Amino acid sequence: MDSDEGTSVDAPSSGASGALTSQLLANSGLMEAFGGHLQELVGSKSSYIDSMPQPMKNRIKALKNIQVQYTQLEAKFYEEVQALERKYTELHQPTYAKRRQIIAGDYEPTEEETVLGFDEEDDDEEDGDMDEEDAPTGAKIMDVDENGDPIEPEVEEGASAKVEKVKYDDTTTGIPEFWLQSLKNADVIAELIEEADEPLLRHLVDIELKHYEEPMGFDLIFHFSENPFINNKSLVKHYNVKIEVDDEAPFQFQGPQITGCTGCEVNWKKGHNLTVKTIKKKQKGKGKGQPGKTITKQVPANTFFSYFSPPAVPEADEETDEFTEEQEDDIAILGRDYEVASFIRDSLIPKAVLVFTGVEGGDDDDEGMGLPFLDGLDGEAGMQLQQQMAAGGGRPGGECAQQ
């Protein structure tokens, strides 16, 4: 494997089965962004090589042919990694099913199942203590009196709670709002969640990963309980993946590459579409002193659910090799999109309880997540834009362009 900084494929220390592929996908996206420029660099001749006698140049060409053979074998290695991921995702299904039952309250763990076989580092976590600011959305940490009975807080006259608080006690079944809180604990996802999204995300009961062998790819499936917002029982996001050595540019190969993604149609119930908002705008009057009309119109709203309507991978102008401002925004959206998908696939789904309890999900856990969907973003414009995105954490100029 290459050992240069930025192209390392060492698995993260967490050891998740999908982490290796995640890092490969991330790094391959970065290399793909350089497109033909990388090949030009790899194939460029230095004065040192130019000064070599022809027999030595021939030996170097032979070494490059050997390198191509290595790359072709490396591609097969990655294909086997993908096959192992598919295999173990299936093997994990009984574990995920048991987790889903406990979260939903359909199964109560036995006393034996609640005894940990190791010592937790955080005494508060071991004792089940939680600060109110860390409590799940909608949860309320109750104060109790000397008899252990809950003390209701005083409410000022005329004041009303913006969101009804859920009171947890010994009669609470399952773990309410488990997935909403887990999403909010993941920094890369939390900034995409608006307050208006939370009532629907409270109905999120599971997130499932499904792999495809041919054509290669994977689904992230969000399952919802009955709710007043959408008719869909599940929302699906599909990602296309390829493992292919380009015969014309074999040294660009860096492992699996994401080539695009597609969302699904969200069937919103009347009056509950979170992707749009209604605004009122007052028009100028036709004549002097005449009042203008007030009109209402719908405009796009910031929402987590835009995740299910991703833009297409843009192509630079053939003549100028440049992107429009709108295309740059789309690339930024796609960059953040894969950061989200990467975290869900390789951290949230396999280690949901660790994200829920705050053990994982912070900025430090995002290292190695790269910039996706860059197949075809070659040329000078692609290089410049990629450098901007890398410097800005996945967004040109460091600003989030998610709509």
General description of the model:
It is a single chain. With 403 residues, the chain is an alpha+beta fold. The chain has 11 helices and 10 strands. The chain has helices at residues 19-43, 47-50, 54-91, 93-104, 123-127, 178-185, 187-190, 198-201, 325-348, 352-356, 379-391, and strands at 139-140, 143-144, 150-151, 166-167, 204-212, 217-224, 234-242, 257-262, 276-282, 294-300. The protein has a 4-stranded antiparallel beta sheet with strand order 5-6-7-8. β5 and β6 form a beta hairpin. α1 (19-43) packs across α11. It is flat and about 85 Å long.
Feature tags:
flat, 403 residues, 35% helix, 4-stranded antiparallel β-sheet, disordered C terminus, alpha+beta, two-stranded parallel sheet, 10 strands, 13% strand, single chain, disordered N terminus
